Each structure stands twice: as structure tokens, then as C-alpha cells.
């Protein structure tokens, strides 16, 4: 496939009013950014490193016309990475929202600067704020993938509203605004009629049910509201033990599936020891042609993603090169067909992913890199 065909213009957030520092030689320079230390930065091996498969796909798709390099990131050498990225056409970023006690504040500021000089950045920090935080579950709750979802902008708001929801009898799932690996995700259920006592379970691996006063649990949540923090409150999905479907997307098209048993919030046996908790199953990867999910894939691509784009103001070419949507099984409809409930969108650091996504990733990235060079050529 010709990756140069029908390439849309870059979004305004990725254009540059200033001259580029790059010296195009006809080849596309593409950087793969991921965290590392000084030793790794000084001796990167992109062809055999963490994203060797992406490097191989880009090289295969672009041949002699593409140069792929590693951009090893740490806050401590921010300026070095910025100088490197100013000279590339596109950068693909893999960096968690919270990593080793640091957030993405320094990184995102640097990426905005780089994007402002005309480099294509995926995923752009402004798109992450729209798409890659838990607030998207609240913003898109009226779409076909939504469920009963609330937003708490402050701890006081959660103190006022959560008890009444718990007294309705069904468990809730609370999620911090930004996080990964189950951090800040809690299943909460009333342990008495007044919800003065609650049973909670953190979604981090190795955690177990704990019963405590609701007031104590709310105090425990206080750090999640620091700065611009907030929490999302969703109805617990009782079919969670049946597993999760992860849809891997390149721009607006499904490029593969990941199927996994979900055990982090699995109902526990009363009195069971923490060490007896079920361990997560391996995620099994499948191509986008997986037969039993074709109707779901079509609904996602044709209906839900375009509706989300319209609601959030994200053009198709602004969607991440690689992202994923996690779905749990919702109630069956009148015809006995499954429904699907969105529980998370991952944008910051999607890895690993199915091999079926590699060619679409390479084609989409090369198309964006070519758009950068076209724009510079027209401005010259």
C-alpha cells in the first residue's frame, strides 16, 4: 500500500510558525521515545531494543527512505531529547502517565514545544487530555459504550454524593483521573445499610477485600484530588469475571484484539487469604478479523469512534497512531446479544500489542512523516 496516498493535512496544534531545525535529505526520520537511563541513552540500539518490532515494520515499509532512531527519555536530560526531536519528522511516544514517582509534566511540555516546530507527535499531549484520562468515561457516557458514570471534581463532592449511591445496594468502581496498572482504581460496596462501613478492593495486583469505615476510605482517596485531580465513579459490571476485550486501534481502525480474564476486582471468597487471589491470565492477541467480534468491530469503527471524535473535537488524523479501548461485557439485550461497556482508553504507552498492528502503525506513521516534509517543502 502506498503510505503517501490521501494524506490529510496536519492539525493546527502540530504546525510551526517558525523555521524547522531539520535538514531533509529525502529520508523520513522517525524517533521512538520511551523511558530509560543515561546508559541506555548513550548507547541506544533501536533495531534490537524495546520496540524493535516497530523499527522493523517502519524499515520494511519505508526501505532506504526511512531512518528510525531511539529517543530515550528522562526528565534529567529533557533538553537533549528536545534537541534530538527537533530534527526528526515524527515521534511515537511510549511513556506512562506515572512512572517511578514522576508524572508526564516535563515530557508533555517538551512534546508541545516539539510539535509546535512542525514535528508530528503521537500521541500529542492535548489529545491525551481529551482521550487518555479516565474523564473520557464520563464525557462519553451517553454513547453506546457508556454506563451509569459520575464525576467527582473534589473530595467534598465525593463525600456528599457517594454514600447515597452506595446505599442503593450495587457496588461502584472509582477511578483516579490519570494512572496505570490499576493504581487508584477501587471497587467499593456498602457493608451495612447506611454505607457507614464499606468493603473496598484496590485493582493493583496482590490486593484483596478490606472492610473499613467509609470516612477512612474517603480520606485514603484524598491524594487523587491533588492539583487537577478528580475521580470517576462507574457502575460495577457483574460480568467482569467473563473477561475483557481490548481493541487496538490505529487512528480510527481496529488493528487487532487482546482477550484476557480480568481478576483484579474479581469477587473474593469471604475469609480467603490474600495470597489465594486469582492471578491475571495472559492476554491472547488476535488479528482484526477475529470472527466473533466483527459486528462489535463495525459498531466501534462506524458509530462509537466517530461519535466520540465529534464530541471531543478530535479529527481522524489527530487520533493516536496506536491506542486501545478496554471493554467489559454489559447486560445482554432482548435478543440475547452481548453489550459492551467501556472501562478505559489507553493512549500514553500501549505495549505490547498484536503483530497485526505493525503494518498499519508503519503506514500511518510514514504518511504523517511525509505530510511534515510536504508542508516544509511548500513553505520553503
Q: What report would you give on this structure?
A:
There is one protein chain. The protein has helices at residues 38-42, 52-62, 78-85, 105-116, 125-131, 135-139, 155-167, 214-220, 294-312, 358-379, and strands at 28-35, 66-73, 90-93, 98-99, 102-103, 120-122, 149-152, 172-176, 185-190, 197-202, 210-213, 231-235, 244-250, 253-260, 284-286, 323-330, 339-346. By secondary structure, the chain is α+β, with helices and mostly antiparallel strands. It folds into three domains: 12-123 and 355-379, Rossmann fold; 131-144 and 239-346, D-amino Acid Aminotransferase, Chain A, domain 1, CATH 3.30.470; 149-235. Strands 7-12-8-9-10-11 form a six-stranded antiparallel sheet. Strands 15-14-13-16-17 form a five-stranded antiparallel sheet. A hairpin with a 2-residue loop joins strand 4 (98-99) and strand 5 (102-103). Helix 3 runs parallel beside helix 4. The protein starts with 27 loop residues before the first strand and ends with a helix.
Over all CA atoms, what is the radius of gyration?
Answer: 22 Å
**Count of DSSP strands:** 17
The tally of helices reads: 10
Strand order of the largest sheet: 7-12-8-9-10-11
Nearest-integer average pLDDT: 88
Low-pLDDT regions: 1-24
Beta-strand fraction estimate: 15-25%
Question: Within the CATH hierarchy, at the fold level, what is the topology of the largest domain?
Answer: Rossmann fold
Topology pattern, helix = H, strand = E: EHHEHEEEHEHHEHEEEEHEEEEHEEH
Helix content: 25-40%
Described by its quaternary structure, the protein is: single chain
- CATH class descriptor name of the largest domain: Alpha Beta
Amino acid at each position: 500500500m502506498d503510505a503517501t496516498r490521501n494524506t490529510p493535512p496536519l492539525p493546527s496544534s502540530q504546525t510551526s510558525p517558525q523555521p524547522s531545525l531539520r535538514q531533509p535529505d529525502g529520508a523520513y526520520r522517525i524517533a521512538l521515545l520511551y523511558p530509560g537511563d543515561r546508559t541506555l541513552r548513550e548507547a541506544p540500539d533501536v533495531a534490537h531494543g524495546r520496540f524493535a518490532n516497530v523499527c522493523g515494520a517502519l524499515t520494511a515499509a519505508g526501505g532506504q527512505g526511512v531512518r528510525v532512531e531511539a529517543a530515550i527519555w528522562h526528565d534529567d536530560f529533557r533538553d537533549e531529547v528536545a534537541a534530538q526531536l527537533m530534527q526528526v519528522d515524527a515521534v511515537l511516544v511510549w511513556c506512562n502517565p506515572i512512572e517511578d514517582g514522576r508524572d508526564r509534566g516535563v515530557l508533555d511540555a517538551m512534546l508541545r514545544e516539539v510539535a509546535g516546530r512542525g514535528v508530528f507527535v503521537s500521541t500529542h499531549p492535548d489529545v491525551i487530555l481529551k482521550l487518555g484520562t479516565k474523564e473520557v468515561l464520563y464525557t462519553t457516557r451517553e454513547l453506546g459504550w457508556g454506563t451509569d458514570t459520575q464525576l467527582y471534581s473534589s473530595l467534598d463532592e465525593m463525600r456528599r454524593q457517594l454514600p447515597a449511591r452506595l446505599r442503593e445496594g450495587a457496588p461502584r468502581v472509582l477511578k483516579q483521573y490519570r494512572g496505570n496498572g490499576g493504581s487508584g482504581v477501587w471497587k467499593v460496596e456498602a457493608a451495612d445499610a447506611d454505607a457507614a462501613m464499606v468493603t473496598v478492593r484496590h485493582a493493583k495486583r496482590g490486593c484483596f477485600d478490606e472492610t473499613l469505615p467509609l470516612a477512612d476510605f474517603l480520606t485514603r482517596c484524598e491524594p487523587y484530588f491533588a492539583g487537577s485531580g478528580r475521580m470517576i465513579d462507574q457502575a460495577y459490571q457483574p460480568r467482569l469475571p467473563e473477561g475483557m476485550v481490548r481493541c487496538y486501534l490505529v487512528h480510527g481502525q481496529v488493528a487487532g484484539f487482546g482477550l484476557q480474564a480480568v481478576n483484579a476486582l474479581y469477587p473474593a471468597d469471604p475469609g480467603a487469604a490474600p495470597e489465594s487471589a486469582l492471578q491475571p491470565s495472559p492476554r491472547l492477541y488476535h488479528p482484526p478479523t477475529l470472527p466473533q467480534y466483527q459486528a462489535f468491530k463495525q459498531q466501534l469503527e462506524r458509530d462509537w469512534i466517530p461519535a466520540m471524535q465529534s464530541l471531543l473535537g478530535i479529527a481522524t488524523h489527530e487520533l493516536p497512531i496506536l491506542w486501545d479501548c478496554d471493554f467489559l461485557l454489559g447486560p445482554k439485550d432482548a435478543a440475547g446479544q452481548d453489550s459492551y461497556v467501556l472501562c478505559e482508553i489507553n493512549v500514553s504507552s500501549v505495549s505490547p500489542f498484536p503483530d497485526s498492528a505493525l503494518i498499519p502503525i508503519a503506514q500511518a506513521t510514514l504518511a504523517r512523516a511525509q505530510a511534515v516534509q510536504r508542508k516544509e517543502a511548500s513553505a520553503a
